[in-house]
Amino acid sequence: EPLRARRSQVLLPSDVLHAELTACYVRVENPKSQHRGTGKAQHFAVRDVTFVRFLEQALQKDKPETPLFPASPATFRRRWHNLLKSLGVPRNLRLTPGGLRAGGCVHLYNQGTSIPNLMWQMRIRQQTTLESYLQEIAALNALPALTPEARRSIEAASSLYPYQLQAFRA
Predict the structure, then answer these.
(1) 41 within domain boundaries
(2) 100 and 154 share a domain?
(3) pLDDT, tens digit, 9 for 90 and up, residues 9-50
(4) Range of the domain at 42
(5) 71 in any annotated domain
(6) Do 87 and 48 form a contact (C-beta atoms < 8 A)?
(7) pLDDT digits (tens, 9 = 90+) for 159-168
(8) CA gap 73, 52 in Å, rounded
(9) CA distance linking residue 5 with residue 146, whole number of Å
(10) Is 2 within 8 Å of 55 (Cβ atoms)?
(11) What region holds the Tyr recombinase domain (predicted)?
């Protein structure tokens, strides 16, 4: 879904003339779950203030038809594998971008986000689906399987996140 998204699907604070807004919204057109009664268009909110500011910088000059990721899914996968390799994450762990959704769910749950809010944020209708995400990812956490060096690399890269986004200039 995100690989096919266009600039017109992102609603930034500046788009609605509310620069003080700390979230942006992304419209998901033709979601996988549309045949389960959730509608042809859905949305999700991005609430990380640093990332919203980054999106403002990165997308402010883009035309509505501009793809958010102007490359192929194969290019995305190659970049994903290169990133994991540079962090020292072995390929046999089979980490995929899809796992970020479940990992994000567990992260928000551990921060105290309520079950109904998690379901809304993830666009999930059945609590059993959410339970499977939480149970599955909690049992399969890859971090303990990593070498100390890989764990340090991930921690160091993570600490740079806000600075890298702030340094970005479109």
Answers:
(1) yes
(2) yes
(3) 999 999 999 888 889 999 888 766 555 555 566 778 888 899
(4) 2-59
(5) no
(6) no
(7) 999 999 888 7
(8) 24
(9) 33
(10) no
(11) 1-148
